Amino acid sequence: MRSKFLRNLLAAPLALGLSGCHLVLLHSAGAVAARQSGLMVASVFLMLLIIVPVLVAIAVIAWRYRASANPPDYDPDWEHSSTLELVVWAAPLMIIIALGAMTWIGTHQLDPYRPVDHADYPHSVAPGVKPLRIEVVSLEWKWLFLYPDYHIATVNQVAAPVGVPIQFHLTAATMMDSFFVPAIAGQIYTMPGMQTVLHAVVDRPGSYRGFSANFSGSGFTDMRFRFLGMSAGDFARWVARVKAGGGDLNRTAYLRLAAPSRAEPVHTYATFSPDLYSRILDRCVEPGAMCMSGMIARDAGPARPAGRRP
């Protein structure tokens, strides 16, 4: 029994190491994700500059001053060391200042609302490249992607050409979710009646995993999609295939799609209603529903005379 316990104890670190063989956050395929991973690695390194020496010092002191050691420099009346005080306070303070400055700068540079352009990412984005706008809607439990520049729509699959800035405009139909493609950019939440924005760029072709990072009910585990990074020619052919596949995502088709479903297969639409995303955002896709903007305008109307009831 004891030998089995020791084998399991020794195998635990090996299993933990193997479980992280494919660390997507440290092997990014997008310039934004690469900067994010660099910030994480630098932050961990700075913190280890304190953690590792403290752990080593604990082991050294415990061994050197054990009961049986009888160290020659034993001094029971010692109470203060200016050198030790300087090291104990100055080193962590410098690391905290460096970590704070690095995090402050990185947080502003990696703001999801900040556009990706040639000035910030010269090796990933060519000057004068027109961004690709993709409108994202999180449904139960699937992802809808609308391409207003190409008038096509896809479910649980999104594609973009390499080296082209991507502008994700995101909202949700019923509940809050979190849009996350670890290899491309950081995560950002989607909320009903609200819009968030995420800018990104993909550096090399490939198929990358995307999912919802926020629990949203029984179908949460199936709320996954694929992000396809393509060359310009492959992306043009992909758009042509979607258009050739047919299908119209009008308001009626959207309401059928929005019904809760699990493990929704990838499917595409050659066209969609031009105002579909704005209506989803304004929460008035259903026939006869009043849009939120209309409610706000009505409530913000001229004040009624005192003493009168509506």
Gist of the model:
This protein has helices at 2-19, 31-64, 82-109, 232-245, 251-257, 276-282, 292-299, and strands at residues 132-139, 142-147, 152-155, 157-161, 166-172, 177-181, 185-190, 196-200, 206-212, 224-230, 248-249, 267-269, 271-272. By secondary structure, it is an alpha+beta fold. The strands form three sheets. The protein has a six-stranded mixed sheet, sandwiched between helices. A five-stranded mixed sheet has the order 4-10-9-6-7.
State the helicity in percent bands.
Answer: 25-40%
State the end-to-end CA separation: 79 Å
**Percent of residues in beta strands:** 15-25%
Number of helices: 7
- Output the strand order for the largest sheet: 8-5-1-2-3-12
Mean of residue pLDDT values: 87
Give me the secondary-structure category.
alpha+beta
**Which consecutive residue ranges, at least 5 long each, have pLDDT under 50?**
306-310
3D shape: elongated
Biggest beta sheet attributes: 6 strands, mixed
The helix-strand sequence is HHHEEEEEEEEEEHEHEEHH
Radius of gyration: 27 Å
Strands, count = 13
What does this 3D model show about the protein?
With 310 residues, the protein is of the alpha+beta class. It has seven helices and 13 strands. The strands form three sheets. A six-stranded mixed β-sheet has the order 8-5-1-2-3-12, sandwiched between helices. Helix 2 runs antiparallel to helix 3. The longest helix is centred in the first third of the chain and has 34 residues. It starts with a helix and ends in an 11-residue tail after the last helix. The C terminus is likely disordered.
